[in-house]
């Protein structure tokens, strides 16, 4: 039976082959008795700037276990059992809407049961989508159905490809193994903060599509769902592009957090929705070398990964919080609009994270009390208003308004230098934000600087506006994961209000697929 060993530490630059004799010493056995050793987890401990360590958890098998004492950092682990999925024979017609993480992993999971589905994606396949997005960034030519928000892979395709999540779910390992199978770097299986990078993620998405087609799925791009049909009070069909209708017995709806016309269609169809809190703000950009120095100390070891950060601040009087979000080491700030006449910013990194800049969203919480009116769609109007203000301040052409961090705080001038394309226009950002949001952000930024001395810097630039942190509403569902108002409709993922990022969205898609399989008689998958 294998053993798990925690807290093995190496200095940056030390070779990982040294883990073997360290493991032997910790177990109290000879090195020759170790028959295999594999990485389970690898992270950076940067709490002491002068003594940064790489900390490992490893799994070890031994030829002789009699001398091993368990306890502390040493424990036995049960060998992993191969996942087994019962095969289902069913004539049920399943339609999946959306090819973001929730839709793709719902499809992959259904395939494990021998089921297939019609998959509808309003945008284009990832190869053509990449060309469309590049044109938008270069020339400001926005395609409403093929952009950073819409298309194969979802919004996360043009991001850092982070796979961290606070969700404790037995399927986390299954998701990671699937991603590696389709081309993700193998180290995501053990890194404490795994990521794929936008460049590799696009190839992974293409690989998933090809596998689904091989297993009997039908995939249609440029197919926007414009309506749903009912029969005996249950969802029975979807309308595509306002022209064609497709029957279905189960509709997995994974729309993405920017599918505003889909939300409006659901509202007209009287699907139960509710407005929910989210966060809005700005995106900050520093030189990556500055963030490395803040987090690691002066002259950090060249083999350390580009430094990251995550900061949060809570104002107990106002009840609002400010926090950093979607931090992209070695990345760029990107134009992420999906509607004409609005500016939206986001961040993106490649796998190597080797660009000169580090960027992150700096956002403050907002909720239904801040939104205009009582409609469940009111959060969308709140977002649109901010995006249109930013577009006007940029002067059109999807130029983004920008300001130095020092100037935003009223503490000096600083410089304005941004990787955002098609370009930025320097202006005051405070008037573009709700007063409470601007005030909370300024309080939060000063708090972040106390935690990360040097964060408030003349080299830092802010761009506006970051509004697409999460869905502005939730499509209400019951314990069976079906819409509380429309049986047969399975809302899932970030756009349905049940996830926040690639990993949690994929997990929610799996949850829905398992629910459908269980209803068809599969039972729970065995691990």
TrEMBL record:
Matches recorded under SUPFAM superfamilies: FAD/NAD(P)-binding domain (SSF51905)
FAD-dependent protein C-terminal domain mapped to chain residues: 277-469
InterPro entries attached to this UniProt entry: FAD-binding_protein, FAD-depend_C, FAD/NAD-bd_sf
Organism superkingdom: Bacteria
PANTHER family in UniProt: FAD/NAD(P)-BINDING OXIDOREDUCTASE, FAD_NAD(P)-BINDING OXIDOREDUCTASE FAMILY PROTEIN
UniProt protein name: FAD-dependent oxidoreductase
Organism encoding this protein: Geoanaerobacter pelophilus
């Amino acid at each position: 039976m294998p053993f798990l060993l925690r807290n093995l530490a190496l200095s940056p630059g030390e070779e990982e082959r040294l883990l073997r004799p360290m493991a032997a010493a910790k177990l109290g056995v000879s090195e020759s008795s170790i028959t295999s050793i594999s990485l389970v987890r690898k992270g950076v401990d940067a709490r002491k700037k002068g003594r940064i360590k790489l900390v490992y958890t490893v799994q070890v098998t031994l030829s002789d276990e009699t001398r091993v004492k368990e306890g502390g950092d040493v424990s036995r682990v049960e060998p992993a059992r191969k996942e087994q999925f019962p095969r289902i024979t069913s004539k049920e017609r399943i339609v999946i809407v959306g090819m973001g993480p929730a839709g793709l992993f719902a499809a992959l999971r259904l395939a494990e049961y021998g089921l297939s589905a019609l998959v509808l994606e309003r945008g284009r396949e990832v190869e053509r989508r990449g060309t469309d997005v590049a044109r938008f960034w270069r020339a400001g030519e926005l395609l409403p159905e093929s952009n950073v928000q819409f298309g194969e892979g979802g919004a996360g395709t043009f991001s850092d490809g982070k796979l961290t999540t606070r969700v404790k779910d037995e399927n986390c390992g299954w998701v990671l193994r699937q991603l590696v199978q389709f081309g993700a770097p193998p180290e995501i299986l053990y890194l404490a903060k795994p990521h794929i990078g936008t460049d590799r993620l696009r190839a992974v998405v293409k690989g998933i599509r090809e596998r689904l087609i091989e297993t009997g799925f039908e995939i249609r791009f440029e197919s926007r769902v414009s309506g749903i049909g009912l029969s005996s009070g249950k969802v029975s069909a979807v309308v595509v592009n306002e022209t064609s209708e497709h029957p279905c017995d189960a509709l997995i709806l994974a729309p993405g957090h920017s599918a505003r016309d889909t939300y409006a269609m659901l509202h007209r169809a009287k699907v139960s929705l509710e407005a929910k809190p989210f966060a809005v703000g700005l995106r900050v950009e520093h030189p990556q070398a500055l963030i490395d120095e803040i987090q690691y100390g002066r002259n950090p070891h060249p083999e350390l990964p580009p430094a990251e950060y995550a900061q949060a601040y809570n104002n107990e009087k106002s009840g609002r919080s400010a926090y950093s979000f979607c931090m992209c080491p070695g990345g760029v700030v990107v134009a992420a609009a999906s509607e004409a006449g609005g500016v939206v910013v986001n961040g993106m990194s490649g796998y190597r994270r080797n660009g000169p800049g580090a960027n992150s969203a700096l956002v403050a919480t907002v909720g239904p009390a801040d939104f205009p009116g009582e409609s469940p769609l009111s959060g969308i109007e709140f977002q649109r208003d901010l995006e249109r203000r930013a577009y006007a301040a940029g002067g059109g052409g999807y130029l983004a308004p920008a300001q130095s961090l020092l100037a935003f705080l009223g503490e000096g001038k600083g410089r304005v230098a941004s990787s955002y394309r098609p370009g930025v226009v320097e202006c005051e950002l405070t008037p573009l934000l709700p007063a409470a949001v601007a005030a909370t952000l300024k309080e939060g930024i000063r708090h972040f600087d106390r935690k990360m001395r040097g964060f408030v810097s003349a080299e830092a630039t802010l761009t506006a506006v970051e509004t697409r942190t999460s869905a502005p509403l939730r499509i209400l569902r019951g314990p069976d994961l079906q819409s509380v108002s429309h049986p047969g409709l399975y809302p899932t993922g970030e756009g349905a209000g049940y996830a926040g990022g690639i990993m949690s969205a994929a997990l929610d898609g799996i949850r829905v697929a398992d629910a459908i399989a269980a209803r068809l008689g599969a039972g729970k998958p065995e691990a």
